[in-house]
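Priority: low. Protein: CLN6 protein. Input follows.
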Amino acid sequence: QIILPLEWFPLNKPSAGDYFHMAYNVITPFLLLKVNLEVHIIIMFVMGASIHLVGDSVNHRLIFSGYQHHLSVRENPIIKNLKPETLIDSFELLYYYDEYLGHSMWYIPFFLILFIYFTGCFTPVEEESRMPVPALLLMGPSSLYYW
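Result:
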């Protein structure tokens, strides 16, 4: 914050510290776990889905309070009445994390991993590997949860 003070960034957009936190979450699996690209993409997918779902959870609660989804954040009647007015910027930041960052981190890795999977389907493999038993056991509950 000494080099890039928070005051330099609008309150309704991520600050430099936020970007460093995101970079930390992206870089750490490579450094500590020595994971390959596919696992890293899956980690990004899960992070993006989580960010989006948390934002949706807050948005659903706002709807019960009178929030109108068809209006922008600043045009909503319940948001206009917030005091201090800087809280409106916080709700715009939440909207940014949900709709822009969350969707990007969710969908881009999803399609990348599908692309890697389907290109791998047409690559000849010398030895067929078997899925471990714990992975087979987790596949059922996971597929029910996601689909």
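The first helix runs from residue 16 to 33. The mean pLDDT is 81.
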